[in-house]
Design a protein that fits this description.
Radius of gyration: 18 Å
Helix content: 40-55%
Oligomer: single chain
Shape: globular
Distance between the termini: 46 Å
Largest sheet: 2 strands, antiparallel
């Protein structure tokens, strides 16, 4: 795996910020003996996040910013266990829209398109993610949701 010094420094800063936050991942990293990231080997030791982590952190144990920075909350339905509740900052929402925009661009979609958004809205994240990305691209959106 190739990872630059700059990337390692960025990851290290995030890991240290998370550890200082005292949130769920702070404890996960401490238990794994992770105090920072300075080498590719350190990076490989960072545990993957899975659905169990999101459930174990219920309700907002993954949040590492003050409530004043949270602009949106999304949640899974919890049909197979505890819901996964995810808080988003304005930067998170913008980054998310940028990723959807890039997907549209990769598919050849431009601002000249009209995009009907059919996934669900509400606490589930799909509909609003597709919409934000299309709007960031500059395409006209028609937010319908399912069955409308």
């Amino acid at each position: 795996m190739e990872i630059s010094k700059k990337q390692l420094d960025l990851v290290d800063a995030q890991i240290k910020r998370i550890i200082d936050s005292g949130n769920y991942y702070s404890e996960v990293y401490k238990k794994a003996g992770i105090t920072g990231v300075s080498t590719p080997e350190d990076f490989k030791k960072i545990p993957f996040t899975d659905k169990a982590d999101l459930r174990n952190a219920y309700p907002l144990g993954i949040q590492d910013v003050h409530d004043e920075k949270v602009v949106r909350i999304h949640s899974s339905s919890g049909t197979t266990g505890k819901p996964a509740i995810i808080p988003y900052t304005a930067k998170d929402v913008d980054d998310w829209a940028e990723m959807f925009k890039r997907c549209y661009e990769f598919a050849g979609i431009t601002e000249d398109y009209r995009i009907q958004i059919t996934p669900g809205y509400g606490l589930w994240t799909a509909g609003i993610g597709f919409q934000n990305g299309a709007e960031k691209l500059g395409a006209m959106t028609v937010p319908m949701g399912p069955g409308n």
